[in-house]
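Batch job 17 of 40 flagged for manual review because the log was empty.
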Amino acid sequence: MSTRPSIGEPRGRKPKRFLSPASIMIYGILIVAAIYYLVPLYVMIMTSIKGMPEIRLGNIFSPPVEVTFQPWVTAWNSACTGLSCEGIKVGFFNSMKILIPSVIISIIVASVNGYALSNWRFKGSEFFFTALIFGAFIPYQVMLYPLVIITRELGIFGTLTGVIVIHTIFGMPILTLLFRNYFVSLPPELFKAARVDGAGFWRIFLQIMLPMSVPIFVVAVILQVTGIWNDFLFGVIFAGTKNFPMTVQLNNIVNSTQGVKEYNVNMAATILTGAVPLLVYFFSGKYFVRGIAAGAVKG
């Protein structure tokens, strides 16, 4: 004789408590991390819209009594970045001239490399891949002097072309690894079916692989944009004094020892310098997570 539960007896899983010890710890860590990163940004924004008399009062956390955007105008148009006082806009356009071709060329070449290494095995492919991976973990500082000599002999030292070439080369290993791992994670039956139908190297890549690879391309764009835009070392060494990118000019503004220290202008220039990678990640962050999860860290 079977026993049946009474009508009023609860069924199903026991509901989880929202404020369990684990959730309290997780949310606590997230809140502390958010505060850690947001407080400096808040101070920067508040300082950048204050006048110098209000800044001298010393209360960095207070909102401005009188909002002014003149520091932003000064930072963009007339802040002194060394001997010239043309603002940080010059560095912005130099950074854009470096960023766009470096990102496009490195991603195109690396995507083809990753595709070839994942689907078209050739003699020496494993050695080539190992060499690329080895190159991804060599410190930049080790190769600075040889690169200076090479770019000097090629006649591109002190030019934007030299900086573009350096960024393209150094972005190649890690991007090739990302694309190779992503293409390996795709169903191999698609590649085999295309080969049976007579498709060649470029047709498979352009018509099959590329439409399926939007997430990993977004990952590559975010990594390259962030790395190239935030770079200081290559810009200060290889660009030349007339082609300094935005990060180098920001350093010149902040570390200037002439005249009054304009903290509001410094903060505005800092926010302007970091705006591009922040906006790129803000509008494409979900694709970044998808790309990483879909194969960027798979072997």
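Reviewer: the log was empty due to a logging misconfiguration, but the result itself is present. The mean pLDDT is 83. Unflagging and moving on to job 18.
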